[in-house]
Specification:
Rossmann fold, nine-stranded antiparallel sheet, five-stranded parallel sheet, 9 helices
């Protein structure tokens, strides 16, 4: 008897081809579309993207001859993702809704519903791979980067655990994106030329700034441009931290006297570290970047040019409560360290770094300073091409 697998069909080409491959491999495939958002209090446009996507998912299921249904997870999505996002932005932190969606919705609630239907696995259209190995009598599940390095999505799955990995399949992880589209065209799938979604995870073509502005109040505040003058950074950086780890993660502490007011914004909570667009200020030789956000005083500090020293830090801290090991067997002991590879955002090339486990948590120190390290975002660390752990940046 063939094993049952539920495919999370998003209405895109990747999940469509994932379902096709599993059907060809002999699995009993069921397609399910997750309806995650239909809050009439937040209207972006007259479009209904989730409806269009669910229709595409239905057409794909009919083409493949597999059962299909839509499940409504909007209550759970609002509570676990949307409410959390608004709260984080409100206090000046930058959450990652895609990582949270995978952790809280796709591989938790959705997985539980799938298991209640008696299936063996769930599958997604992520560009990553899973490998199994043995340690004694125990099976270890490894999360590897996708073959297509330009599309690798292992970072988005950095909060998965061993139980979740044991239940998931990634059918397109060994393919390049061009191969996926080619397979879709050869099999006359309507999603073959469909553009990749740029919106929130399983919500659709919703632009995040517009989404936030309908829940967070507009509040006028100053935009202060900080000079890259070394004297300023010697003053604002606390070099008295007792060791190099704390110095490496120290944030610059700006005051209004460190620069000049060059304009006004609609709310510091709408901006993120490293942001370039949305400032609506011109007339400068080089682009302006957000280098710090003060939500209490409602001030945005900006620097001119991509090499402004305020954009860069050597490292970051992850508190113990926010550390997650995909591979618990590789967890490092207190007062020990290990050389690893790490990234702090999707599609960032892996960077050489070292993690130090201390009383405060894990210090992740890069060999070279990194741009726009933001509180609330996730750092993920790897051994070779295997993602072994992650955490929320403090």
């Amino acid at each position: 008897m063939s094993k049952k697998v539920i495919v999370a069909l998003s209405g895109g080409v990747d999940s469509s081809v994932a379902a096709l491959i599993l059907k060809q491999q002999g699995y009993h495939v069921i397609g399910i579309f997750m309806k995650n958002w239909h809050d009439e209090s937040v209207t972006i446009s007259n479009e209904c993207p989730w409806l269009e996507d669910s229709n595409d998912a239905l057409i794909i299921s009919e083409k493949l001859g597999i059962p299909f249904q839509v499940i409504d997870l909007s209550k759970e999505y609002k509570k676990r993702i949307v409410d959390y996002m608004f709260q984080e932005y409100k206090v000046g932190r930058t959450p990652n809704p895609d990582i949270l969606c995978n952790k809280e919705i796709k591989f938790d609630i959705f997985l539980s519903k799938a298991e209640s239907l008696g299936v063996d696995y769930i599958a997604t259209g992520h560009y990553c791979r899973k490998k199994e190995s043995k340690k004694g009598n125990k099976t270890i599940y490894q999360l590897l980067e996708g073959k297509d390095k330009t599309k690798d999505q292992s970072y988005f799955l950095c909060q998965l655990n061993q139980i979740q990995l044991s239940k998931v399949l990634f059918p397109i992880g060994d393919l390049n994106k061009t191969d996926v589209r080619k397979i879709a065209k050869e099999n006359s799938l309507i999603t073959a030329n469909k553009k990749d979604s740029q919106g929130l995870c399983f919500v659709g073509k919703i632009k995040l700034p517009e989404f936030l502005q309908q829940k967070l109040k507009i509040k006028k505040g100053k935009i202060i441009k900080v000079s890259p003058d070394e004297k300023i950074f010697k003053k604002v950086l606390n070099n008295k931290a007792e060791n190099f780890l704390k110095r490496s993660v120290e944030k610059y502490k700006y005051s209004e006297s460190d620069g000049e007011t060059i304009g006004y914004h609609d709310g510091a909570h709408f901006f993120t570290i490293g942001q370039r667009k949305g400032l609506q200020l011109g007339g400068f030789k080089n682009p302006l970047f957000v280098i710090e956000i003060d939500v209490k005083k409602n001030i945005i500090y900006v620097g001119e040019g991509k090499n402004h020293p305020g954009l860069y830090r050597q490292g970051l801290l992850i508190k113990h409560k926010d550390i997650h090991w995909v591979r618990p067997d590789l967890k490092i002991d207190l007062n020990s360290s290990e050389k690893i590879l790490a990234r702090i955002r999707y599609r960032q090339p892996l960077k050489r770094a070292e993690i130090f486990c201390c009383q405060e948590g894990i210090y992740l120190i890069f060999n070279k300073k990194q741009k726009a390290i933001s509180s609330g975002q996730f750092a993920a660390w790897y051994k070779g091409n295997e993602l072994i752990g992650s955490g929320v940046i403090y």
